[in-house]
Specification:
Blueprint lengths: L22 E4 H5 L3 H9 L6 E5 L4 H21 L3 H5 L3 H4 L5 E9 L5 E10 H4 L10 H4 L2 H25 L20 E7 L6 H6 L8 E6 L4 E4 L6 E3 L6 E6 L1 H6 L9 E3 L11 E8 L30 H11 L22
Parallel strand pairs: 1-2
Antiparallel strand pairs: 2-9, 3-4, 4-5, 5-11, 6-9, 6-11, 7-8, 7-10
The structure holds 2-oxoglutaric acid and fe (ii) ion.
2-oxoglutaric acid binds next to strand 5, strand 6, strand 10 and strand 11.
Length: 351
């Protein structure tokens, strides 16, 4: 696997750091319908809502892993473009969410311009030609085939996970799959992210705390920096990247669907730890979200029915309405930890 990923070209994650106890689930075993490996994860679901998905030994999994490596090269090239070029594909011009977005750091480039931490959300429906395509740079258009394969393969892996979740929740066959049909419009997207090295800053770390909105997130990262908050002790601990595995986490939509049976754990990205702290950090995320028209409410059936009923009437909105509401009030993905009104993350792109 060392050859399949580029982790070995980077300084190793420090040995002495406390890391999150993520369960590792073998994707090859899941594909072979080995329910035992999923039971282990399902058992841990309330504890963390994050797990390693070990792709080694699975044809589909290893394909996704090598496509992620290829896309990591594409994102580095994209983020290395001059700011003025990237800004054309920026937030106010293109779309409030499916666009290039940045925050300026204290660091400066060789011309004295502030360095940018940035991300770029690329819609699944754009990539698969299921809507009128938003403008994008040739660096994104040229590897169209790679993007398309990546989206289809991630979705195939997600479908396997949804099927197992469905079975464990004892829902009627296909319940979750029918809320996540690839050909339907949805907020699924690929996200490129890039962060420059910098000192740990408590305020910035707090403002980065979030849960993911959607259903399942498939995450590749190469350096440390992702942290999850442990549910019992509330301690923030690093998630160590494992070559050959991606990190999967459940989002808020799954919590809604299962009336709190599944957990969408709070997490954040902080500077990479000691041995890696001097490097630019990239991650590649594939977010799966319920179809745009799906109403976010508890599902009926299976073990969900035994969950307590909420005393407050459920606020029902569609997946699309939820996404629109969130990104107009907050710059980056997810909801914040504190209930006080959100200060938007400063994202400024010249008009
Ligand atoms: O960069 C990472 O490791 C995690 C990114 C993340 O949590 C997100 O984009 O929602
Ligand atoms: Fe996240």
């Amino acid at each position: 696997m060392a050859q399949l990923t580029s982790h070995h070209t980077l300084p190793p994650f420090p040995e002495d750091l406390k890391t999150a106890p993520l369960v590792s689930v073998s994707f090859a075993k899941l594909e072979a319908d080995d329910n035992k490996s999923f039971s282990d994860f399902f058992q841990a679901r309330q504890e963390l809502g994050f797990f390693y998905l070990d792709f080694v030994g699975s044809k589909l999994g290893e394909t996704i892993t090598s496509e992620a490596e290829e896309l990591n090269k594409v994102q580095k090239e994209f983020f290395a473009l001059p700011n003025g070029v990237k800004d054309v594909y920026g937030r106010p011009h293109l779309h409030p969410f499916y666009a290039y977005r940045y925050t300026e750091t204290e660091g400066k480039d060789e011309n004295g311009a502030p360095l940018r931490n940035a991300n770029y959300n690329l819609r699944k429906d754009d990539i698969l030609g299921q809507c009128e395509r938003l403008a994008c740079h040739p660096l994104i258009l040229e590897p169209q085939d790679l993007f398309e394969r990546y989206v289809r393969h991630c979705r195939a892996a997600v479908d396997v996970l949804l099927e197992h979740l469905n079975a464990h929740l004892q829902l009627p066959a296909g319940t979750l799959a029918n809320l996540h049909r690839i050909h339907e419009r949805s907020g699924d997207h690929v996200r490129f992210t890039q962060n420059h090295p910098g000192a740990f800053n408590e305020e910035r770390a707090r403002s980065a705390e979030h849960t993911d909105f959607g259903s399942l997130t498939i995450l590749f990262n190469w350096l440390g920096g992702l942290q999850v908050r442990l549910p019992v002790t509330e301690e923030w601990v690093y998630v160590k990247p494992i070559p050959g595995s991606c990190i999967v986490n459940l989002g808020d939509a799954m919590v809604k669907f299962t009336a709190g049976l599944l957990r969408s754990n709070i997490h954040r990205v902080v500077p990479a730890p000691s041995t890696q702290a001097h490097l630019i950090r990239n991650s590649l995320v594939f977010f799966t979200r319920p179809e745009d028209k799906v109403v976010l409410k508890r599902l009926k059936g299976g073990i969900i029915d035994a969950q307590p009923q909420s005393e407050v009437p459920e606020l029902e909105m569609t997946s699309h309405e939820w996404i629109m509401g969130v990104f107009t009030s907050k710059g980056f993905e997810g909801k914040a930890r504190n209930p006080e009104p959100q200060v938007p993350v400063p994202v400024s792109i010249p008009a």
